[in-house]
Design the sequence.
């Protein structure tokens, strides 16, 4: 019951956040000097064609009417224009790309499996390796293992994602020929091809992000191992492994889980650099291509979708807090 109340409360917060993000995005892309009708008018754009484009897109309405139509389209769908030339956009309608003649929602759903595959595998890899590395470094502090792990972590933090990706392609793709250098295979078509095509993007992202997690886990675990409750656990005769895993690491993971939720939500909204380097057509590539084409409807739709994923990731983090920390559960 307590968990259900927590989820309901957080869902209300998610809706409020999404409304605020939607309003800000709407203001930035539709109410500032940029003119979506001008971009959709084509060439030559006569005054008559521009007026028809404004009417078709609903830009002849006052700003609050446009915003309401935008929100209504997300909930119940939307129709652009009237008569035989009208274009229906089913809910949730994040807009319609008149350049690609496709609803933005369909574009996002078509590209999302690619981005989800990259983000999901990389997240598992960087979380496990980062936490394990940080824990080992904390337990063997100031020893050779600690110095080696922190040296690798500094290299990971310092290295740009595109550079790591290109070095991996050069080594494992061209020099050794072990793995494909780019592209994507759907899991349903070829599971082995799906894995081999994603291994390099996973490794590149994990190398960079795991470094941050290793450093954070190390500092948090060192702090926890110096607390009074850890000394009490040892005085009661609890084994060192149980002290570290059951008490120290569990509390040290709270900020790590917070960071993990934010990183995963952000990455699901588009692994822009990795998708470009490894020639994968995910949401990040869709966003970059849309910016280059000035396709504002797609830019707005992808921005809102990314905000939705980050809000959901934060909701999941709040739920996980109660699982790993009894103090948080009791406070609720």
Sequence:
């Amino acid at each position: 019951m307590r968990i259900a109340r927590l989820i309901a409360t957080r869902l209300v917060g998610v809706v409020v956040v999404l409304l605020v993000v939607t309003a800000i995005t709407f203001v930035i892309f539709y109410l500032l000097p940029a003119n979506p009708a001008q971009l959709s008018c084509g060439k030559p754009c006569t005054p008559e064609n521009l007026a028809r484009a404004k009417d078709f897109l609903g830009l002849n309405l006052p700003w609050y009417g446009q915003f309401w139509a935008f929100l209504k389209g997300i909930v119940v769908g939307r129709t652009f224009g009237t008569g035989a030339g009208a274009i229906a956009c089913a809910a949730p309608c994040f807009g319609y790309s008149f350049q690609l003649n496709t609803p933005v929602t369909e574009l996002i759903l078509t590209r999302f499996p690619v981005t989800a595959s990259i983000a999901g595998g990389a997240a598992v890899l960087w979380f496990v390796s980062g936490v394990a590395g940080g824990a080992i470094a904390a337990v063997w502090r100031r020893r050779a293992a600690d110095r080696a792990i922190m040296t690798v972590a500094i290299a990971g933090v310092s290295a740009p994602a595109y550079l790591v990706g290109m070095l991996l392609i050069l080594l494992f793709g061209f020099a050794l020929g072990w793995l494909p250098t780019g592209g994507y295979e759907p899991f349903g078509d070829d599971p082995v091809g799906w894995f081999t095509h994603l291994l390099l993007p996973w490794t590149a992202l994990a190398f960079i992000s795991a470094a941050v997690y290793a450093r954070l886990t190390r500092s948090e675990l060192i702090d926890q191992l110096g607390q009074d409750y850890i000394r009490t656990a040892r005085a009661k005769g609890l084994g060192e492994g149980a002290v570290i895993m059951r008490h120290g690491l569990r509390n040290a993971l709270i900020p790590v889980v917070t960071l993990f939720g934010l990183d995963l939500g952000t990455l699901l909204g588009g692994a822009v650099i990795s998708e470009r380097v490894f020639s994968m057509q995910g949401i990040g590539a869709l966003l970059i291509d849309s910016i280059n084409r000035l396709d504002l409807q797609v830019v707005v739709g992808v921005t809102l979708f990314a905000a939705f994923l980050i809000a959901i990731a934060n909701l999941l983090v709040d739920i996980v807090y109660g699982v790993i920390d009894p103090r948080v559960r009791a406070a609720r």
In short: The first strand starts at residue 78 and ends at 80. Residues 154 and 282 are 29 Å apart (CA to CA).
